[in-house]
Design brief:
alpha/beta; 5 helices; Rossmann fold; globular; binds 1,3,4-trihydroxy-5-OXO-cyclohexanecarboxylic acid
């Protein structure tokens, strides 16, 4: 069974409590449950993680590279400034593995600093602004 890594950056562990007007009221454990069930229905194994630590996120992308896994990535605020995470993602996608960047909100409709993603240019695709459905669509695509 194919395994797909679903990685979440800083502050996403506080979903539901964090700015619900922007990110909705689904909490992180509900997100994990929803994506785990969807994976079962799609016939893929999901490995869902969250970290506030840039180094840990980079290590997880390296792990995906080594194990030839596709990735759903919500880089959270790292989206906007982490060249090191971008380099790790480029290593993955340039070797033919797929990485879909997802966002719960639509960063383009928010503050100016969120309009630029340093990740998008090396992602296979980007899905933003659809709430938790951004993840569902990405996982469904990678499972196909
Ligand atoms: C986010 C958007 C980012 O700008 C923000 O820093 C996040 C969450 C989203 O899912 O909408 O933490 O990636």
């Amino acid at each position: 069974m194919a395994k797909i890594l679903i990685l979440n950056g800083p502050n996403l562990s506080r979903l539901g409590a964090r700015e619900p007007d922007v990110y909705g009221d689904t909490n992180y454990s509900d997100l994990v449950g929803t994506l785990t069930s969807l994976g079962v229905n799609l016939g893929v194994e999901t490995d869902i993680r969250q970290s506030n630590d840039e180094a840990e996120m980079i290590s997880w992308i390296q792990e995906a590279f080594d194990q030839k896994l596709d990735v759903v990535l919500n880089p959270a605020a790292f989206t906007h400034y982490s060249y090191a995470l971008r380099d790790a993602c480029a290593m993955l996608t340039k070797s033919g593995q797929r990485l879909i960047e997802v966002h719960i909100s639509n960063p383009h409709a928010r503050e100016e600093f969120r309009h630029n993603s340093v990740i998008s240019g090396v992602a296979t695709g980007v899905i933003a602004g659809l709430g938790i459905d951004s993840y569902r669509l990405a996982l469904t695509q990678l499972a196909s």
